[in-house]
Design brief:
The protein has about 350 residues and is of the alpha/beta class. Helices cover about 30% and strands about 20% of the residues.
């Protein structure tokens, strides 16, 4: 008889050590709820992390886990997936861990498209190391490392992921538990790399990072929910939308008699051409409505399947071999010891 697991069964029992009010608690709740609803066996789940507040996730889940070094979680996760492709592999990272020292690994994980799920918790600051700018910090941000304001332009995680070839890319707030659970379930069910950016505030060092998104009273006016096949409409009264003006997205008021709702852009998450997803990804926070939901979800060849197919091809041509055979293939040599010659056995 198959055991029915509840959300609490995916928790390790260790008390989470995050600051009061941190969005990590909500993400952990939504994540474990998704695992329970997917009915995944705990022994078939692997969570890999790097360094940072977000990277404590493996300790709090009753699954297999690997707490790696700074930024290298994608490389470890790829190795796990190649060795055990049947496992559900998750990377939990932060904007500093995943996009600064881990930026190179992030790029190659997206382009290779292994069947791995990536959750990036973006609070636009280095929280664990006490409040320095991160790659996603906005220009002008005054932090402990930039007391007069940062001159750097921020990285846009969704834009970067899609540009690097992500076949599934989504953005969610840490305050909407239902959306967290539903999007993470969709990420797991997607065949290929899944990237999910979670917008959250650092209660200690950057507690106003995403106020217009995370406050339910402001969200409708400042965000737009992406739903495949539905027109791009937002606003407290759902009275604003997007249409194309040439190649650009143009915001329009639906109360304007000259605006025809049939002219509004409909979201297409399954389009092979990523142009619309990229146009939505680059909408400016605080200037345009900020998109939430699934930007892109397409099927493309999966990395580990390609590797195993190549492996079988090589074996069919060259025959099965062992490490012993490999080390002694081709030319060998002898090592002289005194007057005797010792051949490699």
């Amino acid at each position: 008889m198959t055991e029915t697991l509840q959300r609490k069964d995916y928790l390790s029992g260790q008390e989470p050590r995050w600051c009061v009010g941190c969005g990590d608690y909500g993400v952990l709740k939504g994540f474990t709820a998704a695992l329970a609803q997917l009915e995944l066996p705990r022994e078939n789940i692997v969570i890999v992390s790097g360094i940072g507040c977000s990277s404590r996730f493996p300790h709090y889940c009753s699954t297999y886990g690997f707490h790696g070094i700074h930024g290298r979680a994608p490389a470890i996760a790829t190795g796990v997936k190649l060795a055990r492709p049947e496992l559900s592999v998750w990377v939990v990272t932060g904007d500093g861990d995943g996009l600064s020292i881990g930026g190179n690994h992030f790029l190659h994980l997206m382009r290779r498209n292994p069947n791995i799920n990536v959750i990036l918790l973006n609070n636009r600051i280095y929280g664990l190391t006490k409040g320095q700018i991160s790659p996603t910090s906005p220009t002008g941000a005054k932090t402990k490392s930039t007391p007069f304001g940062s001159v750097d332009r921020p990285v846009n995680p969704i834009q970067l992921a899609i540009a690097c070839g992500a076949t599934f890319a989504a953005r969610i707030p840490d305050t909407d538990n239902k959306m967290i659970t539903e999007v993470l379930k969709a990420a797991h069910n997607h065949k290929g790399v899944s990237f999910v950016e979670v917008l959250q505030s650092c209660e200690i060092f950057n507690n106003q990072a995403w106020t217009k998104v995370n406050k339910k009273s402001e969200r409708a006016e400042h965000t737009i929910l992406l739903q495949h096949g539905e027109p791009l409409i937002w606003g407290n009264n759902r009275d604003k939308g997007f249409r194309f003006n040439g190649f650009d997205l143009e915001a329009v008021n639906l109360d304007d008699p000259s605006v025809d709702e049939n002219d509004l852009v409909r979201h297409d998450a399954h389009a092979s051409d990523p142009t619309l997803a990229l146009k939505l990804a680059i909408l400016d926070f605080g200037v345009s409505p900020y998109p939430l939901g699934i930007f892109r979800q397409v099927e493309e060849p999966v990395y580990e399947e390609a590797v195993w197919t190549l492996d079988r091809t090589i074996h069919s041509v060259q025959g099965a071999s062992t490490i012993h055979d490999l080390l002694r293939a081709g030319e060998t040599w002898t090592v002289e010891s005194g007057s005797e010659k010792q051949a490699i056995p």
